[in-house]
Amino acid sequence: MATPLTDDRFLAALRAEGVTVVELDGWRTHNRNSRGPWGPMHGIMIHHTVTRGTDNTVRIGWDGYEGLPGPLCHGMIAKDGRVHLIGYGRANHAGLGDPDVLAAVIAERPLPTDDEATVDGNRHFYGFECENYGDGHDPWPDEQLLAIERTAAALCRAHGWNAASVIGHLEWQPGKPDPRGFTMASMRDRVAARLGHSTPGPLPQPTKPKVSLSRLIEAARSNPQMAGTPVTYAGVITVEAALVDEGLLAKRYQDGHYGTSTITAMSEWQEACGFRGREPGQPADGIPGRTSLTRLGAKHSFDVVA
Q1: Are 89 and 144 in contact (CB under 8 A)?
Q2: For the chain, which end, N or C, has fewer CB atoms within 10 Å of the first or last residue's CB respectively?
Q3: DSSP collapsed to 3 states, 40-81
Q4: 301 and 239 in contact (C-beta within 8 Å)?
Q5: Closest Cα partner for 29 from 68, 83, 77, 70?
Q6: What's the CATH number for 7-195?
Q7: Peptide bond preceding 209: is omega within 30 degrees of 0, i.e. cis?
Q8: How far is CA 111 from the centre of its chain?
Q9: Sign (positive/negative) of CA torsion 186, 187, 189, 193?
Q10: Nearest-10 crossing angle of helices 290-300, 260-272
Q11: Residue 125 above 60 pLDDT?
C-alpha cells in the first residue's frame, strides 16, 4: 500500500532504472481523476494493445475510443523499448478484477486464479500498455522486454515492493489474455533479478475460469430489463471478454451486465456456430446454450459448468 508517486518522482524512477522515456505534452495532468479515486497504489499491471504501429498505438492510448476515453495507461512501451508517457493519475486500463488477486498483490504472495471481477483496478495499479498485436505470433523484441522489466523494477524500487507486485491483465480479470507471447512468471523473475532478490514462492499453475451456464442464462434473461447496468453474475464478464475478442461486442460493453448489446453479440456467435433464428426461444436468440457457449469457452480458455 502506498501513496502514488509524484509525477516528478515517477519520471525520475524510470530514468534511474535506464528506461528511455518519451514525454507527451500534457502527460502529467492527463487522467480520469474526476471520475474516481486514484490510490493507494498496490502494484504494476502489464497489458498488450492489440494494435500495430507505434504512432497509432500512442494515439489510441492517449485518446481512447468511443465508450472508453483515454488515457488507457500511464505509459506505452513500444517495440523499440521506448516508454511513451501518456497519462498520470487514474487511467482506464485495469477495469474490474478479483479481490483475492488484489489481496495477494498487497501481501506480495503467489496469485490465486482470477475468477471474479468486482474490484476497481484503475484505482490501485500503475498500467503499462505494450505495443503488440496479441495474437501469439507478433514478436516481443528484446528491447521491449527489457523496457518492461526496467519499468516494473523502477516502480517496485521506488515503492519498496518486490516482483510479486507486478501482474498481467490476464491475472487480474477473468477472460483477459494479455499480455500474450511471454509469461508473467518469467517477467517477474527478470524483475526479481534486477531488484536483487528471488521471486517469492513457486507460482501456481493457471487454471481456466469456470462459467456457470445456468447463472449465465439467468443473467441473460433478467439483466436487459434492469435499470442501469447492474452485475448479477461475475461470469458474464468472462463471456463478454471472449465476445470482444471475437469482434462481436464493443469493448465499452464489457461491463459484466448481460444487456441488449451482449444479447446481440451472443446471437451473432450462435449464428457463427450454425444456429438460426433470433426470435425469443429460437436457437440464436442470444440466450446462451451449452453447445455454443462450450465452443466459445474452448476458443477463449474458460470452462462451462452447470
Answers
A1: no
A2: C
A3: CECEEEEEECCCCCHHHHHHHHHHEECCEECCCCCEEECCCC
A4: no
A5: 70
A6: 3.40.80.10
A7: no
A8: 15
A9: positive
A10: 90
A11: yes
Q: Calculate the alpha carbon distances from 136 to 49, 176, 177 in Å.
A: 13, 14, 10
Residue 205 cell numbers, joined: 499453475
What cell was used for 261?
448489446
Q: What angle do CA 204, 124, 73 make, to 5 degrees?
A: 95
168: left (phi over 0), alpha (psi -120 to 50) or beta: beta
Name residue 55's amino acid: D
Helical H segments across the chain, by residue range = 7-16, 54-63, 99-107, 142-159, 184-195, 213-222, 235-245, 260-272, 290-300
Is-contact 150 86, C-beta < 8 A? no
**What pLDDT digit, counting tens, does each position of 68-106 carry?**
999 999 999 999 999 999 999 999 999 999 999 999 999
Three-class SS state of 139 = coil
Cell 528484446 belongs to residue: 142
The boundaries of every CATH 3.40.80.10 domain in the chain are 7-195
pLDDT in tens, 194-216: 999 644 445 445 567 889 999 99
Name the one residue in this structure whose C-alpha cell is 492527463: 30
229-258 burial, b at 16+ Cβ within 10 Å, e below that, comes to eebebbbbbbbbbbbbbeebbebebbbbbb
pTM for the model stands at: 0.67
* Residue the block writes with cell 436468440: 285
How far is C-alpha 73 from the chain's CA centre? 11
Contact 262, 240 (CB under 8 A): yes
Task: Give yes or no for a contact between 40 and 124, defined as CB atoms under 8 angstroms apart.
Answer: yes
